[in-house]
Specification:
Number of helices: 7
CATH topology of the largest domain: Fructose-1,6-Bisphosphatase, Chain A, domain 1
Number of strands: 15
Structural class: alpha+beta
Order of helices and strands: HEEHEEEHEEEEEEHEHEHEEH
CATH superfamily of the largest domain: Fructose-1,6-Bisphosphatase, subunit A, domain 1
Shape: globular
Radius of gyration: 17 Å
Distance between the termini: 40 Å
Helix content: 25-40%
Strand content: 25-35%
Length: 255
């Protein structure tokens, strides 16, 4: 399963990299006020679906553009063929392919591939998290004021309003915050100790499923905004290095 996910992610990523400077803002359709799709998304998705379905035709699939295939299986592939679509269309290299596998509501495999950056993140439940075959772990930052925080938001207006409030609250406290535009890669940054947390009101499962496992396997913590364990049905997500987690929850549970 891991090899299939890696093969699918790399094949889609190779296509995206090859067409990176060929596709731009004139080649998009707007799905809603905060979401776009291009032929790059759709073609990358076709490559992934073909690879997975050839090997596991009976598995369920949930993909951002294609939607859901329910074969009544205990296994479900969760796919974002191009996480960071806007970045990609602006020729910003911070984009990725994200593929996760869920078994009976538990994420057991996560693969994130950033083709331009030449970074392949892989995590298996209970087996650790890796970047280009090297084991990674979260940071050791203990104080919130010395941490680097990231945030994102879902596509509904209410999610955007909450994200703005989170940014305003924490930024005015003098904390460092950024939005990079690819939730999967932002999870990867937390898992590899480059950043210390990621907050997303209204997260889509296909955006963060692989990243959740990566953070957990790298020693981090993943909950909702009140500190309760995150599940695949949880809309809000807080990923961190664990050490600053409770400090962030104190702010988030009030927003």
């Amino acid at each position: 399963m891991k090899n299939t996910a890696i093969k699918a992610a790399k094949s889609a990523g190779d296509y995206l990299l090859k067409n990176f400077t060929k596709i731009n803002r004139t080649d998009i359709k707007t799905k809603n006020a905060h979401e776009v799709v291009s032929r790059a998304d759709k073609q990358a998705e076709k490559i992934i679906l073909k690879t997975i379905r050839a090997k596991y035709p009976g598995h369920n699939i949930f993909s951002e553009e294609f939607g859901k295939i329910n074969n009544q299986s205990d296994y479900q592939w969760v796919i974002d063929p191009l996480d960071g679509s806007t970045n990609y269309l602006l020729h910003n290299p911070f984009y990725s392919v994200s593929i996760a596998l869920i078994h009976k509501k538990e994420i057991i495999l996560g693969v994130i591939y950033a083709p331009f950056l030449k970074k392949l993140y892989v995590a298996k439940k209970g087996k650790g998290a890796y970047l280009n075959n090297q084991k990674i772990k979260v940071s050791n930052k203990k104080k919130l004021e010395k941490s680097f925080l990231t945030f994102c938001h879902g596509h509904q207006t209410k999610h955007l309003k909450r994200a703005i409030k989170i940014f305003q609250t924490l930024k005015l406290k003098g904390l460092e915050m950024r939005q990079f535009g690819s939730a999967a890669l932002e999870c990867s940054l937390v898992a590899s100790g480059i950043t210390d947390s990621l907050m997303i009101p209204g997260a889509n499962l296909y955006d963060i499923a692989s990243g959740v496992l990566l953070v957990r396997e790298a020693g981090g913590k993943v909950t909702n905004f009140t500190g309760k364990k995150w599940t695949i049905d949880t809309p809000d997500i807080l990923c961190s290095n664990n050490l600053i987690h409770n400090q962030l929850v104190k702010y988030l549970q009030k927003i």
